[in-house]
Amino acid sequence: MSKANQLGAGRFGGGVRPVSARRQAVAAATGVPTDGVAPPTELPPHRISLNPDNPRSSLGDLTDLAGSLQTHGQKQAITVMNRDAYIKANPEREADLEPDTTHVVIDGSSRLAAARDAGLIAIKVMVSDDQGANSEELLESALVANIHRQDLPELDEARALQRLLAIHGSQTALAKRLHRSQGWVSQRLALLSLTPELQARIGEEPIDLLRAVGSKPPEQQEAALSALKQERARKEAEKQERKRRKQTDAPAAQATGKAEGYYGVIEDGSADELPSTPPKRRTAHGQARTGEGAPSLPAQSTADEAAAGGADQQPKRFPYEDGVTAALHLIHKMPPDEFDKMLDRLIKHRDSQAVSAR
């Protein structure tokens, strides 16, 4: 029994993998043992083939990613399969694999290509031959890994979802597989229904509006997009106008010393806002009396007082003349228990007034 069989697992916890007939033939020809070898944790980039089923139509500009790999190193390993395992599950793709490679990337095509551009001699890998037992499962593994990336181009994302939809059969099943809502899937698939002219403008037009018009007949999409853009522009203009008015009104309110609402009255708490003696209240029999437990309240201001107050830059006084505003003020400002006490007192007062009027 070999030492690897006695240990039972690779250095990094990976299980010992079975060896294919092809690798056994290579071992016999080269004299290099392959039995019981743990999966590698690093591989030369040129020994890993790019995935023929990569959802990205283009890997794009890899300059920044290559620079980051050179400067900061690789933070996350890419996922690969043994070439033999990949071909067994996806035999029709063998001719599309790069020659003289031993593995195929499943997740990490951009990092692999950037590592080549950066001239790295090795790249961290995680070998996982259970990515799929057939071509559909392999495709799903590659697509799902890319779907969850934020930088996948919108049209590539829609095409990937379309291919996954063919596997799962319905948008509901696909949404469940991706842990997304059915609406999320539907909106992204809508890009595939756009006219070629509108698809070419993806990246220039708001993507949410393009998805919204994708469900309309092709001859209506351009007009629908224009209408949605105009409506959005109108709402944005209204928003900016409200913001401008608020900024304009704020200095004016500060210059006059007036509070914007009535809420500054109670918070101010100035002693000179309270009357020196409690106001007179009428009993149920119409007799005027002072105090007797009634709370002291700010006196209602007259027109002359208001004018004088404006000169002294005093805040607006309590709105005795506006019952609705006064009630809303008290609802928001008064503690619930005290508000209930006040409400009971007002109800009793109203009832007593009704009895007196009979």
From TrEMBL:
Biased-composition ranges, Basic and acidic residues, are 229-241
Residue numbers spanned by region Disordered = 24-61, 218-319
Checking Gene3D superfamilies in the record gives: 1.10.10.2830, 3.90.1530.30
Task: Identify the residues that the record assigns to the ParB-like N-terminal domain, covering every copy.
Answer: 41-147
Q: Looking at the record's lineage, which domain of life comes first? A: Bacteria
One Pfam family of this chain: HTH_ParB
Q: Which family does it belong to?
A: Belongs to the ParB family.
The protein depicted here goes by the name: ParB/RepB/Spo0J family partition protein
Species of the source: Streptomyces coeruleofuscus
